[in-house]
Amino acid sequence: MENIVNSKAPLDPRRMGRMIDRLCTRYGSLSRFSIGRSLFGREIEALRFGRGEKEVLYVGAHHGMEWITSLVLLKFCEDLAKYHAAGRTLKNCDLAYLYDTKSILVVPMLNPDGVELQLNGPAEDLILRERLLRMNGDSADFSHWQANGRGVDLNHNYDALWREGKEHIARADGILGGGPTKYSGEFPESEPETRALCDFIRMRDIQLLLCLHSQGEEIYYEFGDDTPKKSRALAEVFARLTGYRAMRTEGSASFSGCKDWFIREFGRPGFTIEVGRGENPLPVKDMNAIYRKLLELLLIAPVL
Question: How remote is the C-alpha of 5 from its chain's centroid?
Fold first, then answer.
């Protein structure tokens, strides 16, 4: 049977929706739901594998150029469901046990508007088109666009040293308003995408969070004194499995990110996983190699 998820082309929101349709039609172990809508009204899609009490959450594509993380997560969902349906193990992982005892929740593309802008630019009939063009330096080339549809960098829009981060970025980068990257927004969770994710997490009992970004093959696990005691040990396990480096955050990456908020809010392990190497956006042909390196990490995280 032909794989549904492939690396033939970059993944925009419409193509992702079609893939999710096919995955959920083919595999009963995958359930589909929405955690909310983006600024432009797109569904923020999510998938669930498992019916266990322990929940872990994997999030991709906070940033427009990082759609390759969405492909990786969809490929993971497909392999979970495919091997489970066949009664086979995946990397020696008993998927029947995993399905019965854990729940893996996946938000493959938190920022569908940003991905759409990065890949296809603003539509001619988009109400905010002229504003977006101005924020993009009056250029129609959005190939380096990371932010959402309002020019807010979603991974700087969380309530974890948000004000300090905004001031640091203003000093270091001169960023004071909306644009392609690093603008923190008017207040924490000002954006519908971050608010939807935070509200979803607040309603659940998520034990561990993985946020996939690109690039650098690095694992970030700390948030100052709030860092859970076992986070470093887990990061070192993940590093051994992937060949990535467990790192401490520095500069603007030290503020207002999703894993920072999760650690501070819940006192549980959260990780930023920077996948692949090169220059964003990473080429789609890198997806399979990235996935192979990450697979054991994605499988073992729910059972640690």
Answer: 17
Asked if 225 and 267 count as a contact pair (C-beta separation under 8 A), the reply is no
Whether residue 257 contacts residue 156, with contact meaning beta carbons closer than 8 Å, is answered with yes
The two structure tokens encoding residue 41: 């009204």
Note the Cα 21 to chain centre separation in Å. 20
Q: What is the pTM of this model?
A: 0.98
Task: Encode pLDDT of 101-121 as tens digits.
Answer: 999 999 999 999 999 999 999
Closest listed residue to residue 136, CA positions, set 109, 114, 168, 157: 114
Among 14, 130, 6, 116, smallest CA distance to 64 is for 116
With residue 102 as reference, give the H or E element that holds it.
Answer: strand 102-107
As a whole number of angstroms, the distance between CA 300 and CA 297 comes to 5
Sorted by where each begins, the domain ranges of the chain are: 13-115+188-303
d(CA 124, CA 260): 37
Tens digit of each residue's pLDDT (9 = 90 or more) over 36-61: 999 999 999 999 999 999 999 999 99
Q: How far apart are CA 120 and CA 64, in angstroms?
A: 11
274 catalytic residue (yes or no)? yes
- Cα separation, 167 vs 184, in Å, equals 10
Marked catalytic residue, from 236, 274, 279, 296: 274
Question: What is the architecture of the domain spanning 13-115+188-303?
Answer: 3-Layer(aba) Sandwich (3.40)
- Rounded CA gap, 211 and 105, in Å? 12
